[in-house]
Amino acid sequence: MKKQMRPIDVLAVALGSIIGWGCFVMPGNSFLPAAGPIGTFIGLFLAAIMAYIIAQSYSFLIRKYPVEGGEFEYVTQAFGKKHAFICGWFLVLAYISFIPLNGTAIGLITRYLLPGTILQKTLLWNIGGFDVYLGEIILTMLIVVIFMFINIKAVKVAFMSQTFLAIAQTAIIIIFPIVIIATGHANFSYMHPLMTGSKGESVLSGIAVILSMAPWAFVGFDVIPQVCEEYDFDQSKARTLMISTIAAAWIMYSCSTITTAIVQQEGFASWSDFLNSNPFWATGAAVEKALGKPGLYILGFAMACAVLSAINGFFIASARLIAAMAKRKALPSVFAKRNEGDGAPVAAVLFVGVIALFAPWFGRSALAWIVDMTSLGTSVVFLYVCLAAMKFAKSEGNDKVRKWGIAGAVCSIIFIALMVIPGSAAALYKQAWIMLAIWIVLGIIFWSVKRKDYLGN
Questions:
Q1: Is 457 helix (H, G, I), strand (E, B) or coil?
Q2: Does some domain include residue 137?
Q3: C-alpha dist (Å) from residue 29 to 1, 23, 256, 257, 283
Q4: In the structure, how many helices (H) and strands (E) does the chain have?
């Protein structure tokens, strides 16, 4: 790969991957209903700390194995090809699924900002309570095609556009609560209750729900290893970039949640009362109430930047992961094909693009089930990485990294437990388990086909 990525480019890819549609939608849909403003703040802070702990193992392994493929390569070296296949299989789905999920978010923006347009004229079907419109699918597919072309023909442009999008969305998200408070549109009494429990349970259950979202909310800092062969700087800076990404993501999620909770809506005594009325976009309603249509359109622009940067970021990460797996024959060797100029993984980008073009036809609900399932898969990947760091550190007598690996493994196990223990407030829904079972069966089938070639390589 051509070494052309500056630190700001890598930071933009990671931050753009973390902050997608969720930062604008989840405060009203999930964060506040689960834990309230302060509960969300605490839960996200604890999640960020746990992500920071896990990132220590990543930073150690990046320096040890500065090659494309990241987690797949680490697990290959530590535990062999069978475990690496499991790790890569879950990670590929996690990266790819975020592309169409963010792509369909463009339709949500237009539904609120431009209701009744041609995009919502032709209703195809309803899946899981979500209406699927032909116009929105065409728009999503067009966006996917554009980024697919950029990642094949203009890799440098992909990095430059990612940097612009990440800077724009970050600045707007952080500035909004400051402007709302400074202009006197904030009502802090409206923020009560400050903490709530999930589904009427204890306050701790609400924080636990927010904590369980960490593998989903903070997935993105781990794309930094996927592009390490393209760094135009020393690998030692990767740790600082990962920590900066995690901290920035926590601040942005918190700012978006505060924005949603401090603007009083007419006729409602609190954010809780307002959310009980099932608003289409709570954050958008808060900004529009405080800053009018101009503020709403600026928020829509920020969300568009976030969505596009997430699509681009996961295009970059997933294509490089697939190419690395193909290089080791865990996937068909055609996916390892590169451009002669900048080394872009052409076949891998095309493969990711085709899946991303097909997925929107199933609607956001089905895509959300897949993403929920991948939170569990991502937690398993985190566990593998921490165990790999612990193993290598122990053999090298590096007690500091070994302890970080142990702590990271414990964090990963906590994430897994929150999602799999029956009765847990954060337990996966039935649909997510069905998606997980399907993906495991597909993995077994694919393994049986590639096993001989892969293990013999």
A1: coil
A2: yes
A3: 41, 11, 12, 11, 10
A4: 16, 2
Structural domain for 148, as ranges: 7-456
Number of independent structural domains in the chain: 1
Among the listed residues 279, 355, 275, 278, the one whose alpha carbon sits nearest the alpha carbon of residue 319: 355
Query: What is the spatial distance between Cα 41 and Cα 12, in angstroms, rounded to a whole number?
Result: 24
- What distance in Å separates the CA atoms of residue 452 and residue 457, rounded to the nearest whole number? 9
Q: What is the largest CA-CA distance in the chain?
A: 68
> Rounded to 5, what percent of the chain is helix, strand, coil?
80, 0, 20
Q: Which two tokens stand for residue 87?
A: 């790790």
E strand spans, 97-146: 123-127, 130-133
139: CATH = 1.20.1740.10
Nearest to 368 by CA among 22, 109, 34: 22
End-to-end Cα spacing for the chain: 22
* List of residues 6+ apart from 376 with CB closer than 8 A: 215, 416, 419, 420, 428, 432, 436
Q: Which of 457, 371, 361 has its CA nearest to residue 419?
A: 371
Which three-class secondary structure state does DSSP give residue 331? coil
Beta pairing partners, 123: 133
| Sole residue written with tokens 């920071």 | 52
How confident is the model over 111-133, as pLDDT tens digits? 777 776 777 778 777 776 677 77
* Among 142, 162, 104, residue whose Cα is nearest residue 316: 162
Does some domain include residue 346? Answer: yes
Bridge partners (DSSP) of residue 126 are 131
Type of residue found at 89: W
Q: Give tens-digit pLDDT for 158-210.
A: 677 778 888 888 888 999 999 999 988 888 888 888 877 666 667 777 888 88
Paired tokens of 352: 């990711």
Give how far Cα 360 sits from Cα of 21, 42, 197, 306, 324, Å. Answer: 15, 34, 33, 18, 27
Amino acid letter, 248: A
Share of the chain above pLDDT 70, in %: 91
Q: With contact defined as beta carbons under 8 Å apart, do 335 and 326 qualify?
A: yes
- At 372, list the tokens: 């929920």
Under DSSP, is residue 384 helix (H, G, I), strand (E, B) or coil? helix
Q: Confirm whether 253 is domain-assigned.
A: yes
Which residue, among 417, 421, 71, has the nearest Cα to 211 in the 3D structure?
417
Residue 1 lies in a domain: no
Distance between CA atoms of residues 456 and 351, nearest Å: 25
- The C-alpha atoms of residue 307 and residue 21 are separated, in whole angstroms, by 6
